[in-house]
Design goal:
CATH architecture: Alpha-Beta Horseshoe
CATH class: Alpha Beta
Bound molecules: 2-acetamido-2-deoxy-beta-D-glucopyranose
CATH topology: Leucine-rich repeat, LRR (right-handed beta-alpha superhelix)
Number of domains: 1
Radius of gyration: 15 Å
Structural class: alpha/beta
Shape: globular
Order of helices and strands: HEEHEHEHE
Number of helices: 4
Distance between the termini: 35 Å
């Protein structure tokens, strides 16, 4: 699939108010697929923009190996209002780099204030450095509801994070 097809799939599901719980688009090349959401409202509590349709039952979004870039991550915070109950986000094997992960921070902060916060985040093999991952951990630790599970294996973390640290669990998580 390329981005226009993925956009069509997402828009069609949204338009139909699909009851889908798991959307798996992994192993495609869909960079740009959510760029039309960039003009929405980046908050789950912001009612200034009326949301008429949403994918209310969507809990798992698997975007593994989709050639997603930093701008795609930026669009996620705008798309989140359409996926209010998302709990598992898999962005593994995308060339997000540290800049991409920083674009995810506003999403993580906003999402932690939502009724259904994110529980699992997969960021394996995303070309992250230990600086990016350290900042990510700080942001997560400061959010209202931290993740239950985070995978950050296969990144370049040699300076700070031990190789074994692939799943971080918070108390109570
Ligand atoms: C991925 O898609 C973009 C355009 O959407 C294209 O420029 C790029 O060459 C594609 N990459 C691969 C590996 O197919
Ligand atoms: C809601 O979103 C608008 C832009 O769409 C922004 O100007 C406003 O500050 C936001 N309000 C809150 C409470 O986030
Ligand atoms: C997310 O991707 C990883 C590979 O990076 C895979 O092991 C894992 O099963 C995926 N999780 C989900 C919920 O799809």
């Amino acid at each position: 699939m390329w981005w226009k097809t993925a956009k069509l799939v997402f828009d069609t599901l949204l338009e139909a108010e699909s009851c889908l719980q798991v959307l798996d688009l992994s192993e495609n090349n869909i960079t740009g697929w959510l760029s039309h959401f960039k003009w929405g409202s980046p908050s789950c509590s912001n009612t200034s923009r009326k949301i008429s349709k949403s994918l209310k039952s969507l809990r798992v979004l698997n975007l593994r190996c989709n050639n997603l870039q930093k701008d795609d991550v930026d669009c996620l915070k705008y798309a989140m209002v359409y996926m209010p109950n998302l709990e598992v986000l898999n962005l593994s094997e995308n060339p997000l780099q540290d800049e991409g992960i920083r674009n995810l921070f506003p999403y993580l902060v906003e999402k932690s204030k939502c009724e259904t916060p994110l529980a699992e985040l997969h960021l394996e093999n995303c070309e992250l450095s230990c600086d990016g991952v350290s900042q990510l951990l700080e942001v997560l630790a400061a959010t209202n509801v931290p993740l239950k599970s985070l995978s950050i294996g296969d990144n370049h973390l040699t300076r700070l994070v031990p190789r074994e640290l692939e799943v971080v669990k918070w108390p109570g998580g």
